[in-house]
From TrEMBL:
This is Prephenate dehydrogenase. Keywords: Amino-acid biosynthesis, Aromatic amino acid biosynthesis, NAD, Oxidoreductase, Tyrosine biosynthesis. GO terms for biological process: tyrosine biosynthetic process. Pathway: Amino-acid biosynthesis; L-tyrosine biosynthesis; (4-hydroxyphenyl)pyruvate from prephenate (NAD(+) route): step 1/1. It comes from Heyndrickxia coagulans (Weizmannia coagulans). Transmembrane segments: none annotated. Belongs to the prephenate/arogenate dehydrogenase family. Its EC number is 1.3.1.12. Residues 174-244 form the ACT domain.
Amino acid sequence: MAGSHKSGVTAASLSLFENAFYLLTPFHEQDQRTEELKQWLKGTKANFITVSPEMHDEMVAVISHFPHVIAASLVHLVKDADAEYPLLKRLAAGGFRDITRIASSNPQMWADISCGNRENLIRLLDRWAENLQEVKKALADNKYELLHRFYAEAKQYRDCLPISGSGAIPSFYDLFVDIPDVPGVVSQITNKLAEKGISITNIRILEAREDIYGVLRISFRSENDRDLAMNLLKKETPHEVYIQ
């Protein structure tokens, strides 16, 4: 359970499967070839879990395949409204772009995956539609308590999810730094990282207005690189550094 929203040889990573969950799906629980396969794959440093093929397809549909459908659907929603609201694309450059990152994944691969797991996806789409109908009714009836519970329960469950480790959806190892609107502050941070040989994959200022602190988001290839950068910047800069 590892990968990237990027594709091609240039997106390869030596540590791709390190600490990731590697699900093995033998047709028979006592299949000795499972242990043999683990020996072949132990060099990946992955965490092996044995489940039935049916359970595998159901679980990855919930936490990986279906979220890709939703992310793509949200992007289509904005695309369809783009002609009516010319500013929409510019406004979507911040948080909306972040929550729909996985919509930039390889279209051919995800069309193949969706067709291969279509029965589970159809079942989840039906359940999702029922869930949205409940939200729609709560809005129509102006039921504040129901809406509050809807958001609160989602927040509570999400806050309990592990922050570290690899899951079904590729992780984005982001570090956030509160920076003042001062010339040269970004280069100071990137120079410190470069001096220690810490590579970054992406960098962007999420918000920066005059006399207001901006948020610098720095993306790394691995959790280890992010942790090294966080410790370095906390020690050698006055800025607030954190992980969301």
